[in-house]
Amino acid sequence: MARYRYPDHHHRTPTLLSNDRVRSLAKTTLGLCVALVVLTSFSFVRRSAPSVDYGPRHRAVEVGTRETRETGRGRQQQRGTEGETNEELSVGGFGVGVLGGSYVEESVDFGDAQMWVIGLEDVESVRIRDEKVVLVATVVKDGASWGGNWMMEDHLDMLAGFDHPRENLDLSFLVSDETEFEWMKVSTRAWLRERNIGTYSQPSHSHLLFPHISILYRRFPIPSSSLTSPVPQFRNDDRDRRSRIARSRNYLLSTTLSPDHAGVLWIDADIHRMPSTLLTKMLGSDRDIVTPLCTRGDDGPSYDLNAWSGTRRSPTVDDLRETRTRMTTGEGRVWVPGPETVMFVEELAKYGQETELVDSVGGTVLFVKADVHRQGVLFPPFYAIGTEWDAVEGWDGIETEGLCYVARTLGYRCWAMPLEIVVHV
């Protein structure tokens, strides 16, 4: 059968179409109709998807690019850039096609704190049964706490390099700056979405990364430099700085430690390099509390001088009197604790032993058995040694040093791994 078409509006001369041509046009028309229906359905789904507007601090920033890593100042400027809202980072929950279901977000407000959690719908289904579950905990003040050009994404990349099954690693953070809190949430969403694309393969080497992440926002009066500057050893103001850090650690621990955690790995935000086998070796050592050697830079000196073995100076009666007068009235001098005859972790390395018994540990990287923490071995936010009933506090043993003091009273000991090196900026 012949059909006619008109090539234009001016010349109505009939043009004959073959049957093959008619069938071709019919197929093309049908294909266009199907495509139109699909696009219309997709548009409807996009319009009906829930979204959350987190405000101007969450404007579109390409996470992990060179531009966002140039300098700390440049990073902060990038974070404040106005522009179009990045819809991909604003959707509360997303599916990545992995065992355990989609990642689900939840926000909880309690007291003076806010907690944001992102985790798989079914965490237990991805756990490796014959491996221990570890909580990795980090305290952050603000964006400068990461040190240098480091960012939240770099920290997550470093943790993902552990050879311990990532399905058995939960992450927790306490941040004291609201702007950084919001940005850490955006960074975590983007990082998980980017790294989790792929097929769930072998359990020990899957694409699944960290099934449960908690970010806690709680304001503490910690000076901006407290968690990023070199540790001010044996200074009068060291007590206040470490007291605030101890409070932060204890708050984070009490909020995020769960019954299935076998250990807690404390890592400072400005630790930039660790051996991939470190956590596995710490677990394998079966030590109650253990810390590695921390250096300043790749070839720098020992950094964390709060880890030592030996004896400390003790105050005289006059020293204590003046110190307690200062604590109660604000007048007089403060006696500052310090080493008498000690060996730091760097010096213990000469013995070539995997672990060495120490009297105190530092907190830059620190592993503690969860059951030790649960029994009350925490970080004293005051000088615990020498405390009397009517005194304000004692004269030594604050934060990580106090941790070892309390541990020893309960029959636990602190250890160093002097052959394992972590790098602090």
Question: What would your notes on this structure say?
Answer:
This protein has 425 residues and is α/β, with parallel strands linked by helices. Helix content is 30%, strand content 22%. It is built from 11 helices and 15 strands. It has helices at 19-48, 66-69, 72-79, 152-160, 178-195, 238-256, 278-285, 317-329, 345-348, 370-374, 399-409, and strands at 3-5, 15-17, 103-110, 113-120, 133-140, 169-175, 212-218, 261-267, 271-273, 289-296, 308-312, 339-344, 356-358, 365-369, 414-424. Strands 3, 4, 5, 6, 7, 8, 9, 10, 13, 14 and 15 form an 11-stranded mixed β-sheet that branches. The protein has a two-stranded antiparallel sheet with strand order 1-2. Strands 11-12 form a two-stranded antiparallel ribbon.
Concise synopsis of the structure shown:
With 425 residues, the protein is α/β, with parallel strands linked by helices. Helix content is 30%, strand content 22%.
